[in-house]
Structure formats: C-alpha cells, structure tokens
Design goal:
Order of helices and strands: EEEEEEEEEEE
Largest sheet: 4 strands, antiparallel
Number of helices: 0
Distance between the termini: 36 Å
Number of strands: 11
Shape: globular
Low-confidence stretches: 56-73
Strand order of the largest sheet: 1-2-3-4
Strand content: 35-45%
Radius of gyration: 15 Å
C-alpha cells in the first residue's frame, strides 16, 4: 500500500498565470524530478527544491520551452515525457501536439524533432524494450517509435 509523504508547489512563470504552471507529466532521472507544465519543463530535487527550467539558448536564456519544428515559429507546449536511452546515453522524450522532441540530459538541449505522421494531439509517452509509445488523445490511437538502423540520434 501507499501513503502520502509530502507535496510541494510548482513555481509559476513571470506571466503570473497560474494554470501555465499546472503539472502535466513527471519523470525522475538522476535523482531529479522533471515536470512538464504548459510552458516549461521544470527541474526539482526529489525533496522539492527548485533547480532550473529547460530554456531555449536561442531565446537569450529566457525561461521558455521553445523547441519548434522548422515549419513553424510557435512555442511547443510540453505534454508527456519519458527517459529513452540512445546508444547507452539517456535522453528525454517530450511529446507536443504532433511531434516528439528528443532532448539531451541534464541540460535539455534539442537533439531531434520527430514528426509523427497522422498525429492529432500527442499526450503521454512510455518506453519499453527499445520502443517509445505515444498516446494520441484526439486521434484515438497509439503511435510506436523505434530506433532507425545505423543512426545514433534517432528515436
């Protein structure tokens, strides 16, 4: 059985809009909590101490989750997350509406953007036996991603 140990509050962004800081997904990696919100990926210690926010280095270090596909300039709203090993090195997968973003850990630098053909509203991710499974909430399906043969940075 489980029992509640403690809770901690997620930091809000500079906009002051509380729902932009509502947690969507949590991943634990290297004793840190990675929490996706509507705007950012926040990083906390397991005791709840705020450590950092993944930010786009091209945004001048501003706290923005702005990994955008080339064809659009819109910011990405992170949803589900999972840790995925590529050639023995852990990476973070982050789902957005129609893409899965591959980020390096622990810095969150973009490594790849995987377009998911036919995706409508990607949401949650899980990883099992070398494959990533992504739920498509509005598309009523599960998309399966697997490594490309001979590629070091592909999912």
């Amino acid at each position: 059985t489980l029992k509640r140990k403690r809770s901690f509050k997620i930091q809000t962004d500079a906009s002051g809009i509380a729902n932009r800081s509502s947690p969507n997904a949590i991943v634990i990696w290297a004793n840190e909590l990675y929490i996706s919100t509507l705007s950012f990926v926040h990083v906390y210690s397991k005791s709840g101490e705020f450590l950092r926010i993944f930010s786009d280095s091209e945004a001048g270090g501003q706290a923005k989750f702005c990994l955008s596909p080339v064809e659009t300039s819109k910011s990405v709203r992170p949803r589900g997350m999972a840790v995925y090993p590529i050639n023995g090195v852990d990476h973070m997968l982050v789902a957005s509406a129609k893409h899965v973003h591959v980020l390096s850990l622990p810095d969150g630098l973009p490594r790849q953007i995987v377009e998911v053909p036919g995706a409508n509203y990607l949401s949650q991710l899980c990883v099992h036996h070398g494959r990533a499974y992504v739920s498509d909430t509005n598309g009523n399906r599960i998309h399966v991603l697997e490594p490309c043969a001979g590629s070091e940075s592909a999912v």
